[in-house]
Design a protein that fits this description.
alpha+beta; L,D-transpeptidase catalytic domain-like; 8-stranded mixed β-sheet; 7-stranded mixed β-sheet; 21 strands; 20% strand; elongated; disordered C terminus
Length: 513
């Protein structure tokens, strides 16, 4: 009633004051409406499937801004769904990751045995994609929750090592080409499968030959050791016989009577015969020992050569197997280094699979003090002349082309990786160092230090782990994967931009969330 009365009085007043008053009132009303209007909420993401047949997923991009995840195959997006990332203080880290482990029926070891179905881990300290409730906003403790049905549908389609990019904003892959990207060699690609099959057989045969040569050398060394003892004994006996002969000759020289001379001569002859016999035996034993010592030395050299061939063929077989695997390259402006990872597909008892990390080289970056950004280049398919690539940029700095222009690829990488480069291979360029969560069971973990990391740095870090190197001195399990049993200390990154950073070290324990 009061509102109606006020409205009526205002109407009368406006009629009394005329057109100027009415215009002023209209302007005031418009200003008030503008000041009190709320900004429109962004449209909530919904599940979607591309209107075409989906290929194998190559990467997933999580947008923290849009609370959405999109999966891509070689031809574009294929599946899309809303997500719930980490709350304030427990933010999902933005950066470059890969799927490390999958668990269909995972239960949290930190949050009261909470059910996290269709879990796909992206860090060993507990950040993962999994099914969970979606309230329509960021609500997790750092993981990426997906709709339950969507997570179940995707679980069988993804693979260990698949790229997962967590972007602060909205990012998507765009077609990209550049002369610095890996260009495969058709002949090398054609020969790679046969090499991957044949060289392991050669390596196995070389290993058997090395074992036999080692046994032969050990047996020969054992025999020469007993010969040496026999020679020392004969040398001692001959020395005593020579001394006896010398004494007999002195007795003979001192004899004065015929009878004494006869007895002394008899003793001298016996001593001489004994000394001569021992001399003959010693000469024979020494000749025999020399031939056996020569044979033992030859067996030792043969064992060394067989061991070297075993190591060379094992490396060739390992390289041949890795050559048919997609290669991931990470170039860090922070450390001025280039790192290569390839999946060996060897399961580890504590979960996940072992990644080969034998290539780590310094890299030249032009203007190294100027930010370069974070860019992910992915080979998505073969073309007639090589590979088709896409680029995703998730951090400020140079654009993708300018970033690659600043990199000089080491020739060793071009020689060892490029000839057999295949789809799913990737090159990541970043201002960031590798995270400390990068280890022998990861591809790469690189976290954007200029974004909140609450859901990452508040978690218990993964224990230090062994990192692959080139110390391959025996034929044990660790040497196969290039992990020394007692590794020398390895330096961590010299530069830290924030968050946790890569620092190779010792045995692992399960992550917590």
């Amino acid at each position: 009633m009061a509102n109606r009365l006020t409205t009526a009085q205002s109407t009368v007043a406006m009629r009394r004051w005329g057109a100027p008053a009415m215009a002023a009132m209209a302007a005031l009303t418009a200003l008030t409406a503008t000041a009190t209007a709320k900004p429109p909420r962004p449209a909530q993401a919904t599940e979607a499937v591309a209107p075409r047949e989906a290929g194998e997923p190559i990467m997933a991009i999580v947008s923290i801004k849009s609370q959405q995840v999109t999966f891509y195959d070689a031809d574009g997006w294929i599946f899309r769904a809303p997500v719930s990332t980490g709350i304030a203080g427990r933010e999902t880290p933005a950066g470059v990751f890969a799927i490390l482990e999958k668990d269909k029926d995972h239960h949290s070891t930190l949050y009261d045995d909470a059910w996290m179905p269709n879990m796909q881990r992206i860090t060993w300290n507990g950040v993962a994609l999994h099914g969970g409730p979606l309230p329509g906003y960021a609500a997790s403790h750092g993981c990426v929750r997906m709709p339950y049905g969507f997570a179940e549908k995707l679980f069988e389609k993804t693979w260990i090592g698949m790229r997962v990019i967590v972007s602060p904003g909205n990012a998507e892959p765009v077609e990209f080409s550049h002369p610095s990207l890996l260009v495969p060699n058709a002949a090398a690609i054609a020969a790679a499968p046969d090499k991957a099959e044949a060289l392991p057989r050669e390596a196995a045969e070389a290993a058997r030959a090395a074992d036999e040569a080692k046994k032969a050398a050990t047996s020969a060394a054992r025999e020469t050791a007993s010969l040496a003892a026999s020679l020392r004994k004969l040398e001692g006996l001959k020395k005593r016989a020579d001394a006896g002969l010398a004494r007999a000759e002195k007795v003979l020289a001192a004899a004065r009577t015929d009878e004494a001379k006869a007895r002394a001569e008899d003793l001298r002859q016996k001593a001489a015969a004994g000394a001569a016999d021992l001399a003959t035996r010693l000469d024979t034993a020494q000749a025999d020992a020399k031939s056996k010592l020569d044979a033992a030395a030859a067996a030792k050299e043969a064992a060394k050569a067989a061991q070297a061939k075993k190591a060379d063929t094992a490396k060739a077989a390992r390289d041949a197997k890795l050559a048919v695997e997609p290669a991931s390259i990470f170039i860090s402006r922070a450390t001025q280094k280039l790192y290569v990872r390839r999946n060996t597909h060897k399961p580890w008892p504590d979960g996940g699979e072992v990644f080969d990390a034998t290539i780590e080289l310094p890299v030249t970056i032009r203007d190294p003090d100027r930010p370069i950004g974070t860019h992910v280049f992915t080979a998505v398919a073969r073309t007639g002349s090589g590979l088709r690539w896409t680029a995703v940029t998730i951090d400020d700095g140079d654009n993708a082309k300018d970033a690659l222009d600043r990199i000089t690829m080491p020739q060793e990488v071009l020689d060892r990786i490029a000839p057999t480069a295949s789809p799913k291979s990737s090159i990541v360029i970043s201002d960031e160092p590798l995270s400390s969560e990068t280890n022998y069971r990861t591809e790469f973990v690189a976290v954007l230090s200029n974004q909140p990391q609450g859901g990452f740095i508040t978690r218990k870090p993964t224990a230090d782990v062994l990192v692959a190197d080139d110390n391959r001195n025996d034929d044990g399990f660790f040497s196969f994967f290039n992990f020394p049993r007692d590794p020398p200390p390895q330096p961590g990154n010299a530069r830290r931009r924030g968050g946790q950073y890569y620092q190779p070290a010792q045995p692992v324990q399960r992550g917590f969330w």
